[in-house]
Amino acid sequence: YNLESSIWNVGAVSRGPLQRYGHSLALYQENIFMYGGRIETSDGNVTDELWVFHIDSQSWSTKTPTVLGHGQQYAVEGHSAHIMELDSRDVVMIVIFGYSAIYGYTSNIQEYHISSNTWLVPETKGAIVQGGYGHTSVYDEVTKSIYVHGGYKALPGNKYGLVDDLYRYEVNTKTW
Questions:
Q1: CA within 20 to 30 Å of 56's CA: 16, 29, 81, 151, which one?
Q2: Residues β-bridged to residue 137
Q3: Is the pTM higher than 0.70?
Q4: 9: how many CB neighbours lie within 10 A of its CB?
Q5: CA-to-CA distance for 56 and 51, rounded, in angstroms?
Q6: 117-131 pLDDT, tens digit each
Q7: Measured between alpha carbons, how far is 34 from 137 in angstroms, rounded to an integer?
Q8: Where is the Attractin/MKLN-like beta-propeller domain positioned along the sequence (predicted)?
């Protein structure tokens, strides 16, 4: 979308991801990283696909990260993601919460390390958080924290509903 002319331009992309919803997008330099979501197929799978849209060349590529340690990569939808440079100078995409078809509502943080193409589910400390679906989040460069608000979560009595929870995640110390 051209902000100056208010006109949409549709690029001719020959190869790319399947249609989906509930995915996340995060911008880093001239690339847009797209993670997860529910693919529009007959069985409606939640995916752990990681795609990169290269703005300059108007092309897509897919990434297959190495999962570190005994961890795993969670296929999620309804999550959020942000890319930032840590104090260690490592650039990471942090994926927050989401719904997994296997595990339900996740309260995990997932980290994709861009330069090493590796995936990690770090151990976090601090407050005990309850993961959910459909929340919103924002990264604050001053506090080096991600603020997570609202969403749809499991409630007492086997019920589910919207919440107004507000969490703060400090990215360098991995603390809630």
A1: 81
A2: 148
A3: yes
A4: 7
A5: 15
A6: 999 999 999 999 998
A7: 16
A8: 1-176
